[in-house]
TrEMBL record:
It comes from Kibdelosporangium phytohabitans. InterPro entries: ABC_SsuA_sub-bd (IPR010067), SsuA/THI5 (IPR015168). The keyword Transport applies. GO terms for cellular component: membrane; periplasmic space. Residues 1-22 form the signal peptide. GO terms for molecular function: ATPase-coupled transmembrane transporter activity. It comes from the Bacteria. It is found in: Periplasm. Its main location: periplasm. It holds the Pfam family NMT1. This is Sulfonate ABC transporter substrate-binding protein.
Length: 322
């Protein structure tokens, strides 16, 4: 899906931070919201197709990205107003100077991010000296580093092949690398390789990968009414999905490019947070503490060159609104 080097992303973000002093992108009446084929963000497709944004009085242009990295860069450079991205990827952007605000936790990854290996590799420790395809600087690169750290290995102990996630999954399925880091639905492609199986997944690192809605800081400050309506739309969409599971699954599976049967298999690996669970996560400082831990780990493992600031990164007002 995405094939940008971390240094390139950070250089773009850094340039934005410098130029933003002279002026920021205008606050729009229409909000452009980015998302990619992650099960925790596909309810946005349901919201668009069922007209829930309009019902809540907000004009949203839903922009689907084949490349997740492109969506992160688009938000960091002001090309879009809001994006669906993980906590660690948001920290990557703010470490480079982007001004962003997290307003909602869509879900926690509970198994849909996986490190998958070929037959004969049965543990993370067995990856030493092996080739691992992963999109560097993004969430499953982060998962790989978490897994290596727990196995008392370092990134230098494996041969990382950096490529877009869909390409990584295809390369692994074709037998070109020993292992791959990928998320659903790309895990389905990877697991077509005979004898392959997951070595570890996000299920083994509880709460480490929250998937969130992030907006430009200026949008949150100057048009909080628009952000609030989008957050309201999210929770209403989840309610509709709960009462119309078959129709909702068909919509999300079509956007993901898989069958409804395949899509249903992803459901245990994505745990959606209710409004009440969001309120608890924001008010208990749990998100802030998790972000501080992730930021430290990312600096230690050289995913970022400096510690990402977490103060002001979260705004609880939108999930706390009646």
């Amino acid at each position: 899906m995405r094939t940008r080097l971390l240094a390139a992303v950070l250089s773009v973000v850094g340039l934005l931070a410098v130029t933003s002093c002279a002026g920021s992108p205008a606050v729009p009446a229409k909000v452009t919201l980015g998302f990619t084929a992650w099960p925790g963000w596909l309810p946005w497709q349901v919201a668009a197709e069922k007209g829930f944004f309009a019902v809540n009085g907000v004009d949203v242009e839903l922009k689907y990205f084949d490349s997740y990295t492109d969506s992160i860069t688009a938000l960091a450079t002001g090309a879009i107003d809001a994006n669906s991205q993980t906590l660690n990827d948001t920290l990557m952007s703010v470490s480079g100077g982007a001004r962003q605000t997290t307003v909602l936790v869509n879900d926690i990854s509970t198994g849909n991010d996986q490190i998958i290996a070929r037959d004969g590799i049965t543990s993370v420790g067995d990856l030493k000296g092996k080739t691992v395809a992963v999109e560097k600087g993004t969430v499953d690169h982060y998962l790989l580093l978490l897994a290596l750290n727990r196995a008392k290995l370092h990134e230098g102990d494996v041969q990382v092949v950096s490529t877009m996630t869909d390409s990584a999954a295809a390369a692994f399925a074709a037998g070109h690398v020993d292992a791959v880091g990928a998320w659903a639905p790309h895990t389905t492609t990877a697991l077509t390789r005979p004898g392959s199986s997951p070595l570890t997944s996000s299920a083994e690192f509880p709460s480490s990968i929250p998937d969130t809605l992030v907006v430009r800081e200026q949008l949150a400050k100057l048009r909080p009414d628009l952000v609030q309506r989008i957050v309201n739309t999210w929770f209403e969409t989840l309610g509709w999905i709960a009462h119309n599971p078959d129709e909702a699954t068909a919509i999300m599976a079509r956007r993901a490019g898989v069958s409804p049967q395949t899509y249903r298999a992803y459901q245990p690996g994505t745990t959606f947070l209710t409004k009440q669970e969001n309120q608890k996560a924001f008010s208990s400082m749990k998100l802030h503490q998790e972000a501080a831990q992730v930021a430290t780990f990312m600096q230690q493992t050289k995913l970022t060159t400096r510690l990402a600031p977490v103060d002001g990164l979260f705004d609880a007002s939108f999930v706390n609104a009646p």
